[in-house]
Every structure is written in C-alpha cells, then in structure tokens.
Description:
Blueprint (H helix, E strand, L loop, with lengths): L2 H19 L7 E5 L5 H9 L4 E4 L2 H7 L8 E4 L8 H7 L2 E5 L2 H13 L4 E6 L13 H12 L4 E7 L12 H18 L5 E3 L6 H6 L4 E4 L1 H4 L17
Parallel strand pairs: 1-2, 1-8, 2-3, 3-4, 4-5, 5-6, 6-7
Amino acid sequence: MNLAANLDLVQSRIAAACARAGRDRSSVLLVAVTKGHPPDTVRAAADLGLTTFGENRVQEARAKIPACPGRLHWHMIGHLQTNKARDALAVFEMVQSVDSLHLAAELNKWADRMARTVPVLLEINVAGESTKYGYSPETFLAELPALNALTRLEIRGLMTLAPWTPEPERVRPVFRRLRELKARSEQVLGAPLEHLSMGMTSDFEVAVEEGATMVRIGTALFGERRSGGDPPQGNKPSP
C-alpha cells in the first residue's frame, strides 16, 4: 500500500469533483475510515495531514484511539446501539449515525451527565434498503422537532449510505434527495445545517457533485480491510 499516493489521488479526485460542481475544495472534509486498520496506519495518515477519522465500532475505537495522536478528530460513523451511547461519547467528538429518537435521547442523557454538548448528524436511509439502518425520510421529518429539543445535541446535518453499485451515477438521486431533505430540515428548524455526510470509495465524486461536505473514505486510502468482523458501516447483520 502506498498511502501517500492513494491520498494524493483521492484529494485530486475530490478537487476535480468540486471544480465540476463550481465548489471550493475547502468545502469538503475527507473523513478517513480506519475500521480494521491499526494505530500505525492512523499515525501514518496523520503524518500526511489527515485530521479527521471515522470508526464503525465503539469497542475497536476505545482500544485504538488512545494509541493514536491526540490532536486528531474522531467520528462515530457506524450503527450505534443505545447501550453503547455512554462509551461512544467517551471517545468520539461527533456521532454521524443518529438514527432514532430513542438513541438521540440516550446520547442527550449521557452528554448532560458529562456536561458536554455533542455535535451529531442524523442518518437517513434514503433508498429505503432493509439491510441498512437509518431514518426513513418521513419519520425523520416527523421527529425532527423532538430531536431539535434535545438540548445537549447539536444537529449539524444529515448522513446517508447509498446502495452499492459499480455505476456511481445510479446513486446520484440518493445524494440529491438527501440534499433536498437538508433544505426541508432547515425550513423546519429555521436555521442552516452545515453538513451532508455522503459518499464513500465507490461513489464519493458523485456525492461531492451533489453537495457532500464530508466524504467517508477507507478502501481508496488504505486498501481492503482484514477479513471478518462486522458488516460494512450502517448495514444490519444478516439474520
């Protein structure tokens, strides 16, 4: 693996997508997804200038993060069970995968006990895939006022996982729909939302063209993960 070359290529692809969309490159944050990769890999990525990292599992993050440089920012991007809310807040700066009012209330409870405010993204299952977690658009809009009333959570935007496809253009409508949901959310809240976290290795250029402010990229940077472990981020376990 040539991490420096991989990063240069990813950065140039993000820049090209921004140019096509008439956007400034600085408007897109690269979140390096390090699930299944050791602290040494994180340190190497940090030495190359990456600052924000995403993990899918609380248990792995709790073991890994203390062995990584302290200046880094860590985001929870995988499905979070309510019974792991306290542990997640102990290691993550942001939770990108809030997918229910119940989980949000649990995070709010523990954040209050820790006397901190937690930036969150609300995960939307735009495509309605039964194998993925996330709010349906309708339930999300119905619960948004209650979510906004949780005083220890700062709603910073929305997140989604598009269906996997070898043809990224096929998921452009998913990213466009999330952008439209953000606009509707801003009307409900009466305030702007900063982030759209969407796009991974297979489709991040289309996501950037449709307005992504965060792209979550692992494989294009670090290669394939080791075998075994959990399903991909946001996927439900097989029955």
